[in-house]
């Protein structure tokens, strides 16, 4: 079955769409609050399609992520009782427990690490509000961290450019099915 090749082609097509930057910013904004898909899924093909715009795209992604992070912070600060049920329902409780313990040990440094962590970023933004971190240091640290991550991702994708996109397209079915198999195995092992 060639599912991933068609999805890859569509993603590359969307990365060149005239509203692609808007959608990138929207995904980055809502990912910091509740959305499960990281903005890298859009940033990478957009940076491969337009390598000269990679830094600009990374900046927009980081800015939108931090703006979404402010909303996540507010939810943690003002409405955690409401949000807590969703954390449990979505299976984020282990991530939540880890984030809280990290905040208790390392404080503001956790926000910097969160930009690169495999733990969903929204967990950290909400936890920062619950822990009542100082808001301005939270924003500054989040921006530095998110910008560093997205610049790294965008520049690596841009460096590969169209040549890498073509090579990736040839292997996308193998990569896609490998990820599915690994996800199923992880689920079976961790449940």
From TrEMBL:
Membrane-crossing segments per the record: 20-37, 57-80, 100-121, 133-154, 174-190
GO cellular component terms, semicolon-separated: plasma membrane
One family name in Pfam for this protein: VTT_dom
Domain VTT residues, every copy: 38-154
UniProt keyword annotations, A-Z: Membrane, Transmembrane, Transmembrane helix
Protein name per Swiss-Prot or TrEMBL: Membrane protein YqaA with SNARE-associated domain
């Amino acid at each position: 079955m060639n599912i991933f090749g068609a999805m890859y082609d569509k993603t590359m097509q969307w990365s060149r769409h005239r509203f692609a930057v808007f959608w990138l910013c929207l995904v980055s904004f809502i990912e910091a609050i509740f959305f499960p898909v990281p903005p890298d899924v859009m940033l990478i093909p957009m940076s491969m399609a337009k390598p000269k715009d990679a830094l600009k795209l990374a900046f927009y992604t980081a800015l939108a992520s931090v703006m979404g992070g402010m909303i996540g912070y507010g939810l943690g600060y003002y409405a955690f009782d409401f949000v807590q049920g969703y954390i449990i329902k979505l299976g984020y409780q282990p991530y939540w427990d880890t984030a809280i313990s990290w905040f208790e040990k390392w404080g503001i440094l956790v926000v910097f690490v969160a930009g690169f962590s495999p733990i969903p970023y929204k967990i950290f933004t909400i936890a920062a509000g619950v822990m009542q971190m100082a808001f301005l240091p939270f924003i500054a640290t989040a921006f530095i961290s998110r910008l560093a991550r997205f610049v790294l991702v965008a520049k690596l994708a841009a460096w590969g450019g169209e040549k890498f996109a073509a090579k990736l397209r040839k292997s996308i079915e193998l990569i896609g099915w490998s990820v599915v198999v690994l996800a199923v195995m992880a689920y079976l092992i961790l449940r």
